[in-house]
Amino acid sequence: MNKKIILTAVIVTLAALIGFGAVRYLVLKAKAARKITMTAKQRDTVYKYAKQQYLNNEFDTAQKAFEYVVKDSAVDTMTEDALLSLAAIFEAEGVPDKAQTQYKQYMELFPSASNVQEIQKKYEDINISLLLSPVITKGDVEYTIKPGDNLTRIAKQYGTTIDLIKAANRLKGDVIIPGRTLKITPSKFTILVDKSQNILFLKRDGEIIKTYTVSTGTNNSTPTGTFTIEEKLTSPLWYKIGAVVKPDSSDYELGTRWMGLSKEGYGIHGTKEPESIGRQVTRGCVRMVNSDVEELYTIVPSGTEVTIED
């Protein structure tokens, strides 16, 4: 019996067991492993097989097939769907850093897609979720606690915040135990405020990881330029002209957090009026929803650079 007859018999047997679509996929997979470029028809076959497996909740097989579709240089609807399907698979399997990669690639390849804002939000939510979790990602370090260490010293050494260390390591208090490890994020965070859009961009090592809608000053009164965060306070007293306003007062405007800038009298703070966000309505400060300013407060240390642009 010659090799061709044997191969045909094997394919027929496999087809009977797992279906011709799967056999075709396995053949194309072997080609991909040998770096043989798939034809458009072959790529379409792999894509359809991936979709079938995905709908059948066979995520492991679907993932591998979708990855072959994405590896191709084409930028088309198959690539678009494959990237989103891969992201959904990774999120379902609890691998957010891999889902993050798929969403980022999607936005780079399809910046004009109708759902790009929705995808950007998912991407940014994962960015912050990973940052505030024990998962070690690019730029993070594992620090082994030494005798005599404390959170203040470690945070200062790495240019981060105690709050971020505690959040990322699920610490309920300030007590740390020598010999154990901590996730530390020594990245450089910067802030850009675009007054024309009332948007604040949080950057990590120069890359935007989160956007927040904010309010800025009436009549363009928020100053432009590059400043630094000089003080960070939780629900501080507000020294309004002619009065000292306490946080429990109905006149209090600072919300739950204050980050004072090197431009005296100006800062980034929360609000008791979330409906005001997105407009130019403040006395010149940058105003945020309390939950957003609390998140930002956790992440950025004193000394963080803040650039405000028209």
Tell me what the structure shows.
By secondary structure, the chain is of the alpha+beta class. The protein folds into 3 domains: 3-131, Serine Threonine Protein Phosphatase 5, Tetratricopeptide repeat, CATH 1.25.40; 141-184, Membrane-bound Lytic Murein Transglycosylase D, Chain A, CATH 3.10.350.10; 189-309, L,D-transpeptidase catalytic domain-like, CATH 2.40.440. The protein is 42% helix and 20% strand. It is built from 10 helices and 14 strands. The strands form 4 sheets. An 8-stranded mixed β-sheet has the order 5-4-3-14-7-10-11-13. Strands 1-2 form a two-stranded antiparallel sheet. A two-stranded parallel ribbon has the order 6-12. A hairpin with a 4-residue loop joins strand 3 and strand 4 (199-204). Helix 6 (96-109) runs antiparallel to helix 7. It is globular. The model is unreliable at 4-18 (pLDDT under 50).
Mean pLDDT: 88
C-alpha Rg (nearest Å): 26 Å
Write down the overall geometry.
globular
- Topology as a string of helices (H) and strands (E): HHHHHHHEHHEEEEEEEEEEEEHE
In whole angstroms, the N-to-C terminal distance is: 79 Å
CATH architecture assignment of the largest domain: Alpha Horseshoe
For this structure, the CATH topology of the largest domain is Serine Threonine Protein Phosphatase 5, Tetratricopeptide repeat
Q: How many runs of DSSP E, i.e. beta strands?
A: 14
Low-confidence stretches: 4-18
Largest sheet: 8 strands, mixed
Number of domains: 3
Number of helices: 10
Helix/strand-derived class? alpha+beta
In CATH, the homologous superfamily of the largest domain goes by the name Tetratricopeptide repeat domain
Helix content class: 40-55%
**Major sheet: order of its strands?**
5-4-3-14-7-10-11-13
CATH level 1 name of the largest domain: Mainly Alpha
| Strand content range | 15-25%
